[in-house]
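Lecture notes, unit on protein representations.

Consider one protein chain, 344 amino acids long.
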Amino acid sequence: MRESEATDPFAPENPMKAVSTSASRYAMIHQVLRDAIVNGTARHGLVLLEAPLAELFGTSRVPVRKALDLLHEEGLICRFDGRGYLINPDGLDMEPLRLPLSHAHLGLNGEAELMDTRPLGERIVEEIGAALSTCIAFGHYRLDEQAAAEHYGVSRAVVREALMRLRDRGLVEKEPYSQWLAGPLTAREVTEDYELRACLEPEALRQSAPGLAREMLEAMLQRVIDAQNSDHCSLEEIEQLEEDLHQHCLAGLQNRKIAALIRQGQSPMIISRIFYSLLGIGADPAMLAEHRLILELLLHGAFDAAALNLREHLQRARQRMLQRLKVLSVLPEQPLPGYLNKIS
């Protein structure tokens, strides 16, 4: 057993991630390109192609494609009589500028801020996980290993390893006859996840609370206060708040089996991610108030009261999440990669 496993049951599989650890790759790429275009540092007329951008950002083409789609929807880039997109936020007639893409052409400084230094397997886990998170609220799906390997340009072994890790997170399951299945994420699934968490997380917090560093709790509380004072929270900020309370605050739990069960009960965050991506709705004010109260109680050493409020928070959150699931049921299904096939 690795030392990190013995000390932190909730530690991510690879703590050494690139910039913006909780952010989706496409969201980071979109933001970097958007800032460069809006600030005028990227050369207007420059042709953006998926493959060179993927190489520049150290990722596969999938998140690049999604980032470009978003920029196109915003009117910052446009199609033209050729491959790729043209940087053209003003909608002017201009000649395509075909240059080898570099940091300088995009007006960026330094390579480290763009490159994803994670192993290839880490990237594939994130990208397949993001695809599964998008689809499972809309039905039951079969995943084809070979098709996924061809889609991402990796070996089948890399895809299989990624799926094994996603199975541990409860995103996929493997049938005895070797099919990978995902979804559906139903009201029953959400209810059972919250019931499990309401039983386990408060006790985990009681065990972990005495060992939590005050500086860490103060930083968590400040993030909640900042979110309350903000007009709009990003998805990354929302997920950070959830990780603060439901992972980092429970990291002192010694029972690894309980820790694994809590990790597998995180399907509600999938709903929040889809809800934000499709509707742009940020952090719920009630959720922020509940998080703030629990953190304040922890800072005052009222560990039993914090655990009790965590249980009540999870019970209220279950109702909020079930309402969100109802909203998702009437939304159109999202485009899926070719390796996912809907069963029902």
